[in-house]
């Protein structure tokens, strides 16, 4: 129960001491009879959370990632701080937001990969070709991981968003390359006469057709992302961590689609072709 008296009473200890109190039996007392009223030093403000008094300790972290720093603090507090009954400790702020975002990403990332795989299967109508594109995705992300390491960025929610976008672009590169390889091969395919050399020619023609379009695509993406990487101002730090995986991935993803996917397609189809 909170009671707020007029200011002329609150500002005087004597007036507070003589505030009337009526007991259950009707006796009249004053507040000084049941309480010791005095001025003492205390916190400048009382805060409450979930109807309980709370105190806040603010921590600024520099030079390391937030999650590992909070985990170290939690370990030290658990080992060295005795919490009396009725007290509780909670870790809030950006760490709480990070935990929520991490929990969502654990659901979003697998769902995204599953959707990509289903779309690939619907596109190619072949399980092995869809699986080929999916297995190349982790290797296409290597460039983004290396650029984050070289720039000294810790993996964060923004970086995870950048990797999701990079995975989509990498899958697109692989799909276009595989479609051109299949088109070049279908123009030559003949179960009775085609040989391994025909398959090699089809792969060369299909892969060469994608060199210039891929180079133009990479150039356009880099032209849009480099201003973000070198920009400054409000929100630039978050945007740089989103763009960094994309910039690094634009080196490895095109190379993988132009060299690894044709070689893997040769291995997949070469087993069914007769040698000359």
Q: How does this model look, in words?
A:
There is one protein chain. This protein has helices at about 5-10, 15, 30-35, 65-80, 95-125, 125-140, 140-150, 155-185, 195-210, 210-230, 235-270; strands at about 20, 30, 45-50, 50-55. The model has no long low-confidence stretch (mean pLDDT about 80). The chain has a two-stranded antiparallel sheet with strand order 1-2. A two-stranded antiparallel sheet has the order 3-4. The protein is mostly helical. About 65% of the residues lie in helices and about 5% in strands. It is rod-shaped and about 110 Å long.
SSE layout:
Elements: H1 7-10, H2 13-17, E1 20-22, E2 28-30, H3 31-34, E3 47-49, E4 52-54, H4 66-80, H5 94-124, H6 127-140, H7 142-151, H8 157-186, H9 196-208, H10 211-229, H11 236-270
Antiparallel strand pairs: 1-2, 3-4
Helix pairs in contact: 5-6, 5-8, 6-8, 6-11, 7-11, 8-9, 8-11, 9-11, 10-11
């Amino acid at each position: 129960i909170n009671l707020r008296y007029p200011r002329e009473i609150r500002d005087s200890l004597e007036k507070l001491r003589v505030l009337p109190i009526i007991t259950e039996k009707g006796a009249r007392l004053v507040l000084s009879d049941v309480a010791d009223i005095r001025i003492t030093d205390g916190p400048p403000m009382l805060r409450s959370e979930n109807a309980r008094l709370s105190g806040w300790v603010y921590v600024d972290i520099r030079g390391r990632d937030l999650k590992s720093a909070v985990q170290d603090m939690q370990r030290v507090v658990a080992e060295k701080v005795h919490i009396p009954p009725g007290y509780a400790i909670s870790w809030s702020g950006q760490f709480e937001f990070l935990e929520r975002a991490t929990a969502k990403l654990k659901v979003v990332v697998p769902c995204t990969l599953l959707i990509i795989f289903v779309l690939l299967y619907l596109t190619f109508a072949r399980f092995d070709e869809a699986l080929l594109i999916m297995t190349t995705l982790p290797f296409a992300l290597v460039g983004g991981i290396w650029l984050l390491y070289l720039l000294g960025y810790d993996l964060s929610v923004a970086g995870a968003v950048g990797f999701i976008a990079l995975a989509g672009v990498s899958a697109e590169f692989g799909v276009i390359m595989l479609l051109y390889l299949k088109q070049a091969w279908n123009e030559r395919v003949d179960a009775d006469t085609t040989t391994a050399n025909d398959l090699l020619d089809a792969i060369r023609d299909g892969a060469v057709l994608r060199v210039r379009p891929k180079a133009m695509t990479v150039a356009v993406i880099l032209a849009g992302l480099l201003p973000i990487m070198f920009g400054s101002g409000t929100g630039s730090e978050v945007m740089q961590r989103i763009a960094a995986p994309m910039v690094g991935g634009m080196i490895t993803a095109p190379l993988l689609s132009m060299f690894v996917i044709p070689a893997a397609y040769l291995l997949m189809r070469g087993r069914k072709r007769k040698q000359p």
